[in-house]
Amino acid sequence: MESFPEKILVAIYVTALAPNTRSPPASLLQEFFNRTSTESLMDFQVSVNNGPEKPKTVVSVGPKYLANNAYQCCQPEDLELAKMMVRPSGMFSEDLAKESLLTEEKFGSVQRAFVVCEKDGSMDEDFQRWLIENSQTKEVEVILGADHMVMLSNPHELRLRLQKIVEKHC
């Protein structure tokens, strides 16, 4: 969006981090951890590697976290495949902490929509609502009974919502 705003009709965030131009993207991760209890993180781990001179933040998502926070509405087979594919990954925290990463002229000029997935009033829904408000997203679609992996737990509803958003912008 920052590099080619004129080529994007609408940016659609689906249970995703939605940045803004007022604060660095790293602030979204900080807010997530501020709003999330330690108990609900279960076996989600954040560590710093590569020594004190060049620290690299690494995230590891464990099977309990996946089962309770990402794949709770999916088929058991989807969860098992996800557990087999998960690997520790870097968060690029140095890049995400840069104040001038996104500009109002480019990134801010792209229309944004957000698809909220609601399952029993969880903390994740509260965070999704905060993201929408924080990112100045004007258009919101809601899918009930879906988890973070809505493309697996409710693909038909996701397709309908995406189609509806795109049709509004064409």
TrEMBL record:
UniProt xrefs under InterPro entries: AB_hydrolase_fold (IPR029058), MES/HNL (IPR045889)
GO molecular function: methyl indole-3-acetate esterase activity; methyl jasmonate esterase activity; methyl salicylate esterase activity
Transcription regulation is among the record's keywords: no
Alphabetically ordered keywords of this record: Hydrolase
Organism domain of life: Eukaryota
GO biological process, one term: salicylic acid metabolic process
PANTHER family on file: METHYLESTERASE 10, METHYLESTERASE FAMILY MEMBER
Protein's name in the database: Alpha/Beta hydrolase fold containing protein
Biological source species: Trema orientale (Charcoal tree)
